[in-house]
Amino acid sequence: MRKKYGLLIALLILVIGFSSGDIFAQQTQDESIIADIDSLKTTVDSLLQEHHIPGAGIALVHQDSIIWSGGVGYADYDDKNSVTADHLFRVGSISKTFVAMGIMQLVEEGKLSLDDKVQELVPGVEIKNHWKETDPVRVKHLLEHTSGFDDMHFSEFYNTQDDPNISLEKALSINPKSRVVRWRPGTRYSYSNPGYAVAGYIIEKVTGKSYEDYLRKSILKPLGMSQSSFAYGDSVKGAMVTGYKGTYDPVEYQHIYLRPAGMLHSSPIDMAKFVQLLLNDGSLDGQELIADSLLSRMETTETTLAAKHGFTKGYGLGITHSEMAGYPNLNHNGGIDGFRAQYMYFPEYELGYVLLLNSSNGFGNIREAITKFLLDNTEKPEPQSTVKISGKKLDQYEGYYAYRSPRNQLFMPLNVLFEGLTLEVLNDTLRTRGFMGSPKPLLPVSENEFRREDKIMSSTFFMSTEEYGQVMQHDSNFYVKTGSWKKYVYRGAFFGGLGMLATLLLFSIFWIPFESYRKYSTKHTTFSYQSLFGWPFTALCSIGLIVLGASQLELLTIGERTMEAMAITVATYLFGISSVGALWTSMRSWQKDIHPIMKIYFSIISVTLIGFTLFFIYWDWMGLRLWAY
């Protein structure tokens, strides 16, 4: 199945594999071969410094062996302890692949089905689904992120108040609002950590064991991942690197509520064994952990509308498709405060790697450098061939596509404003253009499937549906074709309103000092137009309070009742009250002896403020309590 480049890879192992690095340091090494690994280390070290990342744990993996596993940089930046193959990192959402595999093992044993209804398996978990009679949330929807759930709400982020080993049942009861199904399940992909927390709880209900214990015995122990753990104990603490954010600012370890979604701790050498398992179709060292067919299912998208129409690329069951440096691959990444991680494997080349970072700063270009190094001696795949499509067919795809798969519903108003895509045909080529972006060509690989000009894999798929009309899946995001006028109305009203408020800000900056001087120099007792200006100025101050409060929020405490969070709540109410006050005073001004221009100006300002108030109310931002969200 995956032997096309077997001879070439075998040579690669001889040339690179038994060379330099932590796990092969005891072997006789050729200096030129050592130089190859050292060259990669030098490149990675340079990128670490460029992006202010203290250290990286890396493993280069072949289907038949671990080529090299080790570290670059520091496990602790202050003490300058070097990263090794045995150091533990938090790998965040990579945990999801293990949870999905645990579920698939239960499927293989006949104890579970991907089509099982979630609420029948765990009736105590609250799920609000308007489509439950015809379209219940099923296990496969949880694992493919197609349940329609929101992502984590703030109150279920970090566990700073409860027992670190709080039961999953209790953790899931903290905020059921994230499990409100927002569209018909099995429609579209939208990443949801709560879905995987529910999946972990299903493992517990089916097996009668904690999900941690089950995954340790069914996956970690058989693979020899002896250092890895889903629990944070003394052994983990002793082997953990220090996590960092910003410019080498250490991060204190924090527990999370939805543990199955991101609690795994692992090392480069342990994760290398897991990548070997994936490259060997679910078996390692003669032991089958999961059937080849079930692993193939994990690597395939089936439940989205696009998948049902034949486009099976995207997020499968804990494994996703992507492209790196021109090579298609399968992978999962993870991020948690102070850490970033990713495993990636290339089945066609029987190769893969692991990259673990003790920083929140991101991967920079490190992944690309490792990919190019690992696949340097392989034949690069050709881009998917293109086909000729008639201009009439291309014209059918033109129009405005509204974004309809937000990860966090709270930010949907921003998605409405900024995430829509305009498609247009220019010089017989379909092009996509985002907000304030330049047109980017889409090349057809079939009548309804397209790829970017600089990519080899297709990423855009069109379909016609009864429920939504013309739909586009683009980079796993779900878009619905709608009237182009809407983007002009939304954006025109929003930015026009901001422009008016900007004039009010300028008015305040110049008018208040001028009137203050006028009052005290000429003995005037009141400001001119004071009655008109007071409420709008209060609304302006409330916006400033919202911005100030938001800028001071910390991810760790965003779900708690902090002064910053309460300031935002109070400020939204104050804005609404001020807007109504501004409208009332502007209406009354028409009965008074005030300059007509000022009457018109403040009337427009008051209508603008009322417009933003309605915006806040419609999107549930009025009185927003972050600690209860």
Structure description:
There is one protein chain. With 629 residues, the protein is an alpha+beta fold. The protein has three domains: 89-374, 3-Layer(aba) Sandwich (Beta-lactamase), CATH 3.40.710.10; 391-483, Lipocalin, CATH 2.40.128; 499-628, no CATH class. It is 40% helix and 18% strand. The chain is built from 19 helices and 23 strands. The strands form six sheets. The protein has an eight-stranded antiparallel barrel with strand order 16-17-18-19-20-21-22-23. Helix 2 packs antiparallel against helix 13 (366-374), helix 3 crosses helix 8 and helix 18 (563-589) runs antiparallel to helix 19 (596-618). The relative contact order is 0.10. Mean pLDDT is 91; it is low at 1-33.
Q: Which term fits the overall shape? A: globular
Are there runs of 5+ residues with pLDDT below 50, and where?
Answer: 1-33
The proportion of residues forming helix, as a percent range, comes to 25-40%
> Helices and strands: which structural class?
alpha+beta
In the sheet with the most strands, the strands line up as: 16-17-18-19-20-21-22-23
Estimate what percentage of residues fall within beta strands. 15-25%
Name the CATH class of the largest domain: Alpha Beta
Please state the average pLDDT score: 91
**Count of individual domains:** 3
Tell me the CATH topology of the largest domain.
Beta-lactamase
CATH superfamily of the largest domain: DD-peptidase/beta-lactamase superfamily
Whole-Å distance between the termini? 48 Å
Give the strand tally: 23
Radius of gyration: 28 Å
CATH 2nd-level architecture of the largest domain: 3-Layer(aba) Sandwich
Number of helices: 19
Q: Largest beta sheet, briefly?
A: 8 strands, antiparallel, barrel
